Amino acid sequence: MSVNEAQNKAEEELLNLIRGGSAQRFVVSISRHAGRWTVEATDRSSGLSRVGDGVSFAEAWLQQEPKHAHGLVANDHSADAGISMPGLHT
């Protein structure tokens, strides 16, 4: 996937999440510090989170993993339970 394709895919997924009917369920955080992007999407109804980081927004968004994979939350078993967050790839 080219850089432009990755950027378009990441932006499309983010916009679909925000525009979707379940948008009120989610909290999305996007930050940039020291040249690195961090994105996190949390389903407020279940508390499950996915987080990613990278040198670009697209890299961070497309590489999101369950938050426990980053050693941050031990009780997020969304991948194990087959739970997906609408608008986010798994």
What does this structure look like?
The protein is α+β, with helices and mostly antiparallel strands and 90 residues long. The chain has one domain (3-75). It is 30% helix and 27% strand. It contains three helices and four strands; from the N terminus they run αβββαβα. A four-stranded antiparallel sheet has the order 1-2-3-4. A hairpin with a 2-residue loop joins strand 1 (26-33) and strand 2 (36-43). The longest helix has 17 residues, at 3-19. The protein is globular and about 35 Å long. It starts with a helix and ends in a 9-residue tail after the last helix. Mean pLDDT is 79; it is low at 73-86.
Sum this structure up briefly.
By secondary structure, the chain is α+β, with helices and mostly antiparallel strands. The protein contains three helices and four strands. A four-stranded antiparallel β-sheet has the order 1-2-3-4.
